[in-house]
Amino acid sequence: MDEELLGEFLTESNENMASIEEQLMELEANPDDEELVNAIFRIIHTVKGSCGFLGLSGLEKLAHAGENLLGKIRSLKFQVNDDIVSLLLACADGINDYLEGLEQNGAEPDLDHSALIARLQAAERLVETMAGAGVAPTPTPEAAKPEESKAETAAPAEQAAAEPAETKGAELTLNEWAADFSDDVRNALRKQGWETPKQVMDAGFAPLRDLEALSPADALKILGLAKAIVSRGGMAEEKKAAPEPEPEEVKVVEATVEPEAAKAEKPAAAKKAGPPATKAKPKQEEKKSTALVKAQKPKSAGSIRVDVELLDSLMNQVGELVLTRNRLLQMVNESGSMEFMRVGREIDQVTERLQSQLLQTRMQPIKTIWGSVPRVVRDMSNSLNKKIRVVMEGEETELDRSILTALKDPLTHIIRNSCDHGVEMPDVRRAAGKPEEGILRLAAAQESGHIVIMIVDDGGGIDPEKVKAKAVTMGVISEAEAEAMPDQTALQLIFNAGLSTAEKVSNLSGRGVGMDVVKTSIEKVGGTVDISSEVGKGTTLRIRIPLTLAIISAMIVRCTDRRFAIPQISIRELLSAPASSEDWRTIGGHPFFRLRGRLLPVLELATTLKLVDEVAHEGSIVVIDIGDRTFGILVNEIYGAEEIVVKPLGVHFQQLTHYGGCSILGDGSVIPILDCNGLAQMMDLSEEADKVVNMADDEELVNLNDLQHVLVFRQDGAHFAIPMALVERLEHFPAEKIETSGSNEVLQYRNGEVIPVLRWADLVNLGRLEESSEVYGLILSDGSHRMCLQVDEIVDILEVPLEIKKPVQDEFFLGTAVILGQATEVVDVFDVIKRAVPDWFTTPVHSAGVVVKQSIVFAEDAPFFRNLVVPVLQAMDIDIHIAEDGKKACEILQDKTPNLILTDIEMPEMDGYELAAWIAQQPHLEGVPVVALTATPPDEDDLERRQHFDEILLKFDRHTLVARIQQIMGLGGAAHGESVDAQIVSEERG
Amino acid sequence: MNGVVNAGQAGSSELLTCRVGKQWIGLQVAQVREVVTPQPCTQMPLSLDAVMGLINLRGRVITQLDVRKVIGLPEREDSKHYRVAIVESITGEDFGLVIDEVGEVIELDPDRYEKTPKTLDLIWRNVSEGVLKQDDRVVVLVNVERFIAITIPQQAELESEGQTIH
Questions:
Q1: A-chain residue closest to B92, CA distance
Q2: ipTM
Q3: How far is CA A979 from the centre of its chain?
Q4: pTM of the entire predicted model
């Protein structure tokens, strides 16, 4: 077989087949769309047409059966139903199987699709019968048409064999039969003296392909067309003698064996063979082929195909380069030579760019694996008699291809599960007051170096009690454990092997095996998965995976005299745990560390790895969160985060689940990477100790929602943290990009926008690093304003519970928090911005709100202020309901009586005055204090305006805010006050 | 069982002799990539006794196996003095075999080549292709694949005692 030809065929067919599924499903929705039927017919027809040349008889038979059915649907204007679409989808699948086999082996795979072909033929007859019987929904005059053509052409069909007009087909002039090819093509053919289809056919493929004006695809097409025309004429004569491997006609002969089928086939055959059709048909077909050629032409000339293996090997090389660079830089720094340092820095930058760009080449949008989801959901909902709509967001989100490949199966499984067990039957949904059609939402987004994929259904949700009950029956947990277990933890049990909550086991998503496999496969690519669900509302699966596998961010720790790397993705936070800490506990012989009222089981790395027999309980704790389990790893010291290249371990370590690989550090030494899932399994808790895991004492549990992303940076040796909510980007740019404009410094940002620059060192009077050529800038933005905060050194971006311990008096700080085991000043972005852009807060900004619980209703349109005030209120143990404007606040207040209403004055839709006026009219809100929180208070003597509010506070005066709220809500000396004390020590109270 | 071996055929007729304790062994030169001096080695906690650790050989991470440990000899007196023969296995993974000393490369003389005698240590018999008798010593021809196989967990449990997985 001509390899080039086969390659062309595969490329073209794969491209065409990729769209057919979608088109079929569209057809199902719009059975009247004739254009769609035509398009689908063309695709199958093209595949079939090319098969003849390549000798792919199996594929040809299948494609032919599909083509016939489609042909009938087209000619009879038959409106397809679900069954026919399913059958056609199956046919497309079959064709894809062949293509796949061809691609892998270069030869036609030996597949038996005879049953499918028989079904296609049966469907074809059915279409005929139904159309004939007038069942077809097409109007009668239309329906008469095929009858007519039948009558007209039936007779010629009998003698089509001898019809002289046929042979004429082989002698058509170039302009007649190849009208739809470009002039260039025709001229080139004419030059060679190949005018008629017969001449073209006799010339053969190779000479055609060698013509400059013809691409191999064109050559293939024109040859196919020529052969089709010639064979239509010549074929008839041979028909009786020997069945030539021209499939179309052979099929007719076969079909005639069955009398009923004969009826069906005759008009078709007649139409193909009959003289009136001859002229029109090739033309029609050709138009389509050219359309296809055209469609392919815009393929970018600037891209080339590259073997994935080559990319993988390049990736390895770059990995090595990164490691060598690390070593080099270390040596350069030790040398102290300025010249070396400059070269070193250049190499550093080039390597970084090379690495990031190479990573880019391996990225593929997630839609490459989501493409099949609509089909999967359609098939599922059909067989389950459910109605499910798929909504996808962030399809363009890119992931490393190796991760994508690994994600495909788990994703499909989750989606099947959601369809099967998640979304309810239509009648159940109706009864529950939900629309009959369930929605399955897939969303992907990038989030600080990771990709987060959510699979959300609005189905019945999972009842944690049921999961617990099941887990107890299965012996996974004890009854006592079940009782103590928080719902969120209970839900994670579904990832436990052998647990399935579906009352009815269906053949579609299996029997409880699966979710554990899903979890394992996601963890294999370094990801995590967790589930949350609300009974009656739906279920959300959240998958978090690294952008790329080859290079990960890891925390380097020391345990005894050895170093280990712990992947950042599993790390929730770092704690300093000195021996003197009162938070150490020993229960059932196992160490625990009390963290925000919860007992965290601690794994002593040194004894677990048998490095020593006994350890002192002191050092640092790395808090690991692996979805269903949270535990701490006790190490001696934490060095810091580093980007490391993951290298696989040899065969001697396959059974050691606590290693996830190894890497080479800057000094050239090999470092083991710990696998936190494996470590968790090694944690051997006594029964007594196990009981207290997940058990909270008197205080509230830390909710996942309390986790915040913060960026930690270093200036003059001190650590500072800034909440990521307002950091739009982290920029690394040449120092000279900062220009001076008057007395201010500015930066030309993207799109030429000029944004103010503030230097952190200047703001807080700290020393700057000596002028370096590249500087870091944090671009702060709330959507409408931007500024750049220049800092010296970025330490890390972390997801931590931001617990601000001590609000300080100083400007620019919210207070101090312990991050990375180090006291870190948390920057008050607001103060910084106020300095840079004084008018920032006067312009209203729109944004989606955060949903919290109740007790205080807080109306505020600027997300920035919400971020500023909400933590303060949360720290006071107040539940907050947030409204983005006055209108939203009214909606919330319709059926809610909070203890306090806190509102901004300047808001879109309905401002604070209007809101206050509305509140005054609501009987159920009588007596609820309304406090305005504003940056621009009305004049002292503007009583008309002031009378709306019980109190007017300034937005940036947090201390007064805290004090006043406590006073108004009577929190001062109450029980709640204690917890306020613990977390916020306001100066008034102190 | 060990049969007569085709070590002498197929062109692989050169052997690198190495000493482990008092025993001389021969590795097929074609399978030895290089011999290196001691490299900084990262021990891997909880791994098998035979696994000395991981070394960084010009950017490649290689598992280092201590031949003494595999055959149950006491630790070498001078722990800093050894050589590492980097060998290639059919799986594509390279291993470092830690030996006491490297001898020379010798031609395999088919006439002097004998089947593994029954008197040889069991462990050597398991990995031997035969022995080569020289004037004053006996060189055991070691089949590298088989030698590595007995250090890997599953096989280790089956074929040799004293190798336990923690």
A1: A650
A2: 0.86
A3: 40
A4: 0.44
